[in-house]
UniProtKB/TrEMBL annotation:
<dbReference type="InterPro" id="IPR039255">
    <property type="entry name" value="YceD_bac"/>
</dbReference>
<dbReference type="Pfam" id="PF02620">
    <property type="entry name" value="YceD"/>
</dbReference>
<keyword id="KW-0690">Ribosome biogenesis</keyword>
<protein>
    <recommendedName>
        <fullName>Large ribosomal RNA subunit accumulation protein YceD</fullName>
    </recommendedName>
</protein>
<comment type="similarity">
    <text>Belongs to the DUF177 domain family.</text>
</comment>
<comment type="function">
    <text>Plays a role in synthesis, processing and/or stability of 23S rRNA.</text>
</comment>
<dbReference type="GO" id="GO:0005829">
    <property type="term" value="C:cytosol"/>
</dbReference>
<dbReference type="GO" id="GO:0042254">
    <property type="term" value="P:ribosome biogenesis"/>
</dbReference>
<dbReference type="InterPro" id="IPR003772">
    <property type="entry name" value="YceD"/>
</dbReference>
């Protein structure tokens, strides 16, 4: 059994209290990520540490670890893509405050009045980390495809001399 993350948190309060979260998210519950997956079994291991830095910026330091099953665009087979995300997000209450964040932070914009589901930020980060064109890092096409390709190349010189061969073949049929 694994620990579920809470569905609603107030990240600013978490930062104020220096809280930590640890748990797992089922991949099948990430509806925006799901269409990119070959198989949505599995989980993301999530660690979040909330705190306030020396100049008063609330932040979340996160580590998200998973292995996604994607479709290889060459062979259309399953491709296992391990992802480890280390992220440092500065909490801001409005988009216009993003420019005030120190450089080491990526912004996490949270509407003042709303609780957030921590799984949403995990899903955002995973989507950003997906490969543009998932492909196996080896020749993954079935052997026959490569072999027939080689034969075509090898046959070309013979084909140039083939009209006579074709003619004689036709003649011999009569
Ligand atoms: Zn492949």
């Amino acid at each position: 059994m694994h620990q579920q993350l809470p569905k609603e948190i107030d990240p600013f309060r978490f930062a104020h209290n220096g809280r930590e979260l640890e748990g797992e998210i089922e991949l099948t519950s990430l509806s925006r990520l799901k269409p990119s997956l070959f198989n949505d079994a599995g989980t993301v291991k999530v660690k979040m540490r909330f705190d306030i830095d020396q100049i008063g910026t609330p932040y979340m330091q996160g580590q998200f670890v998973t292995e996604l099953s994607m479709t290889c665009e060459r062979c259309m087979g399953e491709l296992l893509y391990p992802i480890t995300i280390e992220t440092l997000l500065g909490l801001v209450k409005h988009e216009r405050l993003v420019s005030k964040l120190s450089e080491q932070y990526e912004p996490w914009i949270i509407d003042e009045s709303e609780f957030v589901n921590p799984a949403d930020v995990v899903e955002d980060e995973l989507i950003l980390a997906l490969p543009l064109v998932p492909k196996h890092d080896f020749d993954c096409l079935p052997k026959e495809v490569w072999q027939s390709g080689d034969e075509e190349v090898g046959e070309k010189p013979e084909k140039q001399a083939s009209p006579f061969a074709v003619l004689s073949a036709l003649k011999s049929k009569k």
